[in-house]
Structure formats: structure tokens, C-alpha cells
């Protein structure tokens, strides 16, 4: 039991370590040497009545969560701005309207005060409803928008019982604001509905999801987090807004970008491809809501006047969380296909999604990767002259074969008649 508790604590500690590290900008040559603002973190704990369950090796979920919180507080760097918010912690009645407003910030975001934070957590008792959507929205307000890295760590044992607002919708709204806010989620013995909701929340904001249900699953997840912590921080995409046509599209250099696309929408971007360069581009769209089966995503390179140069297509049937495709196009061998100005190359991202639920804003998160390299040296294809020569040779060979076949047929018929 002790080993399992420690493993659960380690899982949350590793998430907190990723929170404190933050993420790097989209391009390596633009990484700042010093951070202007320290990272701001809000820990959000579910204290609803279900947290009384004693199903983690005989210990209650709330007791394990409290111990994990204490260890997280001890492990956070001094520079971290920490806040703590709870949900379902004060109202134990049956009035759902009242219970679904039950979320409070018990520690304001600021320099880590370990004693105050631990004392605030120690008095918590499982009580009421589970207003996750409202708690996320309030947590984002708690963190403010100072330009620093902002992360929310949500720990819950169940899905939201107070929709609206729906937690997934809230997460998409927060991501669509274009601010550096990420939500990491951790489910305590989650069922399938809870897992899907927590995955939706974390996916919409670029965060991570972890679960604590069995010792084997917990060990595997911890190993994944350890491996991730040992790797360099992931590239942070630069936020960009695609246009409705190529003439208004933003000019993009090599790098990684993030945008959001509505169902059935086309998003346009431009890339300056010089003669002798090869454009390599890929796009990934996170499927953060339920979609009708059989859908696809298209990435296309075209000229300013709409002439298609190359395309990449990927299709799905509802089993994947992300849909991706890519393309390559070399300006060195097809310079006549683009205008004299290099900005004539347009990238178009479109989709064939359909949904039974609301298909409006905010759109689905997409990540666009662009690279420009020296054009690949590929063997030359036969020219027009050599192609005509080949046709002439084939025609002559066919004529000769036809004459021989006719002569042999006449000889065979004559011989058969004589016999």
C-alpha cells in the first residue's frame, strides 16, 4: 500500500515538474535566456462526496490526494507562483443549483508558502457536487494573463456533475483565447466517461492526462512521465491566424504554428519558397469532440491563383484522437508553376468533418509544421524528345510483330488445309 501511495504521489510530482519547467518558444534561435515572469500554477482538487471512497489500497481518495498535494508543494521551485482551488468542498446539501457553484480559491496565486498551503489542504473534507467546468474557468481567472507560462493541474475522481458549463467546452474556450494556458488532468480510478472528459480537457489545451487505477497502469504511466521529463522541453508552437483566402494569408517562415479550424473550414497560409528549396509541411488536427464517422483532413500547396501543386490527405473513421498529413514540394523543378515572387506558394488546410453536436466556435486545434530545405536531387524523367522516340520504337516493334504474326497465321492455315 505504501508503494502504491508513493507511486501516485510521484505521478503528480512529475506533472508538477513539467508545470514548473514550462515550454520553449517555436524556434530554437528565439529561446530567451531568462524568463520575464515566473510560471504560475493553480492546483485544482476535487473534494466532492465521492472522494470519500476507500479504494486506493484501502486508503480514501482524499487522503492520498492530500499527501500528493503536500509532496507537490514541497517539490515546487521557489520561483513558482502557486495557487490552490477546490471544488465541492463546502456545500453538502441537495440543492444542485447551490452545489454547482461550490468552488473556492483557498490559496491565492503567489510565491510558494508551503506552510499555508499544507494547512489549507489539511482541513478539506469530501462534501458536495463536482463543478469542474466552473472551477476551470475560475482557475484561469485566478492565474490572470501576465504573459508567463500558466498551468492548471486538475485532480478528480469523476466527471462533471454540473454541466453547463461543459468542461471540454470551457477548455476549448480557454485555448481559443490564445494565451499560454495548459491544463493537465489526473483521474483517480476513472471510469470511461471520466477518462474521455479528462482527455478532452487536456487535449484541447495541449496538456497531459494520467490515471491512477491499478498498480500496473500506475507504474507504466510513471515511467512514461519519467522518460518525458528526461527529454528536452517540447517546441511551443507560435500562435497564428490563417486567412479565408491566399491573398490575405499570413507569411510564415520555417517553424511550428498553432491555429484553430472550424468544421468544414479552409485556412490559408503563405510560405516563401525560393528556387532550389524544397517545402516540407505537415498538419495535425486534434479531434477534441465527437465526430460523425468517415472524415478527413487535407493539406494542399497551391499558387496564388489557385493552381494546385501537391496535396496530402489523411482519412479517419472515429478511432483516432489526432488526424495528420503532410506534403513535399520542390521549387527547383517546377518554377514555372509559381509566380515570379516566392510568396506565391500557399498552404491550404481543410477538413471534411461533421458532428452531431455544436459545430461552431471555437474551432479544433491544429498544429502546422513548416520546413525549407535544399531541393532533393531526384533522377530526371525522360524528356519530351526521348518520349517521342520511345513511342516511335514501340510503333515499329508493333508493326513488325503484326507482320510476323500475320505471316505465321497464313502459313499455319495453309498447312492445315493441305493436311
Number of strands: 16
Radius of gyration: 30 Å
- The CATH class of the largest domain turns out to be Alpha Beta
Nearest-integer average pLDDT: 76
Could you say what the CATH architecture of the largest domain is? 3-Layer(aba) Sandwich
Strand order of the largest sheet: 3-2-1-4-5-6
CATH superfamily of the largest domain: von Willebrand factor, type A domain
- The CATH topology of the largest domain is given as Rossmann fold
Report on the biggest sheet.
Answer: 6 strands, mixed
Helix and strand composition category? alpha/beta
Distance between the termini: 100 Å
Q: Enumerate the spans where pLDDT stays under 50 for 5 or more consecutive residues.
A: 1-12, 19-36, 225-233, 333-340, 379-386
Q: What coarse outline follows from CA principal-axis ratios?
A: elongated
**Whole-number tally of structural domains:** 2
- Count of alpha/pi helices: 9
Fraction in beta strands:
25-35%
Question: How much helix is in the residues?
Answer: 25-40%
Order of helices and strands: HEHEHEHHEHEHEHEEEEEEEEEEH
Please summarize what this structure is:
By secondary structure, the protein is of the alpha/beta class. Helices cover 32% and strands 27% of the residues. It contains 9 helices and 16 strands.
What does the model show?
With 419 residues, the chain is α/β, with parallel strands linked by helices. The protein has 2 domains: 2-230, Rossmann fold (3-Layer(aba) Sandwich), CATH 3.40.50; 238-374, Jelly Rolls (Sandwich), CATH 2.60.120. 32% of the residues lie in helices and 27% in strands. It has helices spanning 2-21, 61-75, 96-99, 114-122, 132-143, 167-176, 192-205, 215-230, 384-418; strands at residues 40-46, 81-87, 103-111, 150-156, 181-188, 209-212, 238-239, 251-252, 255-261, 266-271, 277-286, 295-302, 308-316, 322-330, 345-351, 364-374. The strands form 3 sheets. The protein has a 6-stranded mixed beta sheet with strand order 3-2-1-4-5-6, sandwiched between helices. A 5-stranded mixed beta sheet has the order 7-9-16-11-14. The protein has a 5-stranded mixed beta sheet with strand order 8-10-15-12-13, with no helix packed on it. Strand 1, helix 2 (61-75) and strand 2 form a beta-alpha-beta unit.
Amino acid at each position: 500500500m505504501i508503494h502504491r501511495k508513493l507511486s501516485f504521489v510521484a505521478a503528480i510530482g512529475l506533472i508538477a515538474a513539467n508545470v514548473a519547467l514550462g515550454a520553449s518558444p517555436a524556434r530554437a534561435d528565439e529561446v530567451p535566456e531568462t524568463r520575464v515572469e515566473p510560471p504560475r500554477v493553480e492546483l485544482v482538487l476535487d473534494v466532492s462526496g465521492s472522494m470519500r471512497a476507500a479504494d486506493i489500497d484501502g486508503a480514501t481518495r482524499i487522503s492520498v490526494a492530500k499527501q500528493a498535494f503536500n509532496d507537490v508543494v514541497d517539490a515546487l521551485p521557489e520561483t513558482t507562483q502557486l495557487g490552490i482551488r477546490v471544488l465541492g468542498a463546502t456545500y453538502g446539501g441537495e440543492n444542485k443549483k447551490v452545489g454547482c457553484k461550490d468552488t473556492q480559491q483557498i490559496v491565492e496565486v503567489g510565491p510558494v508558502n508551503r506552510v499555508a498551503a499544507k494547512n489549507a489542504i489539511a482541513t478539506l473534507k469530501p462534501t458536495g457536487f463536482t463543478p469542474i467546468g466552473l472551477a476551470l474557468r475560475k482557475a484561469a481567472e485566478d492565474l490572470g494573463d501576465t504573459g508567463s507560462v500558466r498551468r492548471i493541474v486538475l485532480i478528480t475522481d469523476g466527471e462533471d456533475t454540473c454541466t453547463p458549463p461543459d468542461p471540454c467546452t470551457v477548455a476549448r474556450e480557454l485555448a481559443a483565447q490564445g494565451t499560454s494556458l495548459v491544463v493537465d488532468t489526473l483521474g483517480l480510478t476513472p471510469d470511461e466517461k471520466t477518462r474521455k472528459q479528462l482527455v478532452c480537457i487536456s487535449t484541447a489545451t495541449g496538456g497531459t492526462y494520467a490515471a491512477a487505477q491499478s498498480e500496473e497502469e500506475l507504474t507504466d504511466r510513471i515511467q512514461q512521465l519519467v522518460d518525458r521529463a528526461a527529454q528536452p522541453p517540447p517546441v511551443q508552437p507560435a500562435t497564428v491566424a490563417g486567412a479565408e483566402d491566399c491573398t490575405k494569408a499570413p507569411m510564415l517562415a520555417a517553424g511550428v504554428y498553432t491555429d484553430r479550424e472550424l468544421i468544414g473550414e479552409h485556412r490559408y497560409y503563405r510560405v516563401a519558397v525560393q528556387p532550389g528549396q524544397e517545402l516540407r509541411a505537415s498538419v495535425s488536427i486534434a479531434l477534441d469532440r465527437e465526430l460523425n464517422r468517415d472524415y478527413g483532413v487535407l493539406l494542399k500547396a497551391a499558387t496564388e491563383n489557385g493552381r494546385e501543386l501537391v496535396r496530402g490527405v489523411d482519412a479517419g473513421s472515429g478511432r483516432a484522437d489526432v488526424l495528420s498529413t503532410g506534403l513535399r514540394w520542390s521549387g527547383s523543378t517546377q518554377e514555372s508553376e509559381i509566380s515570379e515572387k516566392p510568396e506565391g506558394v500557399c498552404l491550404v488546410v481543410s477538413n471534411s468533418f461533421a458532428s452531431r453536436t455544436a459545430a461552431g466556435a471555437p474551432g479544433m486545434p491544429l498544429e502546422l509544421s513548416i520546413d525549407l530545405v535544399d531541393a532533393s536531387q531526384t533522377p530526371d524523367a525522360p524528356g519530351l524528345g526521348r518520349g517521342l522516340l520511345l513511342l516511335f520504337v514501340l510503333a515499329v516493334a508493333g508493326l513488325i510483330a503484326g507482320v510476323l504474326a500475320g505471316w505465321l497465321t497464313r502459313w499455319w492455315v495453309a498447312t492445315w488445309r493441305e493436311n
